[in-house]
């Protein structure tokens, strides 16, 4: 018998996706250190059918990534372990709740589980991905779906969280991972959501190459920990020490050893090579889609913060940046000023030349404003023909001089039918006890004073 590990390229792809991490196989053969005198071995309940993370073989031996990680962490914490066999994960949860197990292996921290458990820091972090049939469309946002079904193993943290976060989806529960994948493969469910490591393992093992990774939900990572009963707080503290003693290199080696393709001698190696080739294409394709999803999410974030006409920060983004700059200036006693500007007689431009010319004027003003402010200034469209400039590390005199330079640049370079376009500006600086609203209000009052005094001028508001 021989073993043929996954191709090096495919393993590196998974490493880039953050799916890999576990302990050396040598840890499996290392006996746990003896517990302190008089202290019995800690009892452990596991998921008996969750490869490659956790499983129990016919003799009740604990195997998998989680098994090796738990053994190594327990060894380094000086904790001896005894596995309590169960038929499924729900029975393991019930046994833990009833006090028959001190430890639950390899699980996510959820509000429901915190009712009786405390948790170590993560042993293994693995992204969850949305798996669909190969002809299903790419899924940029689960919340936007309607009338779609997701198959999930019953009693898992993912089932609990998806029900809460995505009530638009119909959840179909299954006994295990394999059944969930089978429903999607046979188009009896639209999708499932599982960890990338489990998805890779199951698709390979069952040969479901008609499945693909169609999306990833930000923030939906498996942070797999050890759950310890609340009445065993000292045990949690000791195991946490063991968890921290497991190195990143040890975590990486075990994943490569468990996520492997096994081939018996005598099998046509060309067939195996084809399977590996097909699977590598699937992984590369999925990497492309995940990259595309991340790019789309970044694009959506940019659009949500940007004024579509001028390309400047929009009001929501200005408010966000203003809050951060205000907090920094207040905390460290640094100056912060605002300039609020408004195009004079903008309605006349729209009425005389049309709204298209009005839009061109706003775009031109945005470009001139960017060109005549500093790299540290934050420029945005506040609304209509009003613009706001946040000026960190700038006192009232410096901000007024900046506003005056901008007023002159607009007058000189923004000319329509031989007439210069002018603006009015109000300047305010942060004072003791000021809030975001109070500084904005004083900048706005200074702007309207500039309007009332004849326009085409800069007025200031003392702090």
UniProtKB/TrEMBL annotation:
GO terms for biological process: cell adhesion involved in single-species biofilm formation; negative regulation of bacterial-type flagellum-dependent cell motility. GO terms for cellular component: plasma membrane. It comes from the Bacteria. GO terms for molecular function: diguanylate cyclase activity. Its EC number is 2.7.7.65. Keywords: Signal. InterPro entries: Diguanylate_Cyclase, GGDEF_dom, Nucleotide_cyclase, Rev_trsase/Diguanyl_cyclase, Solute-binding_3/MltF_N. Residues 1-34 form the signal peptide. It catalyses: 2 GTP = 3',3'-c-di-GMP + 2 diphosphate. It holds the Pfam family SBP_bac_3. PROSITE patterns: GGDEF (PS50887). Residues 334-463 form the GGDEF domain. This is diguanylate cyclase. It comes from Pararhodospirillum oryzae.
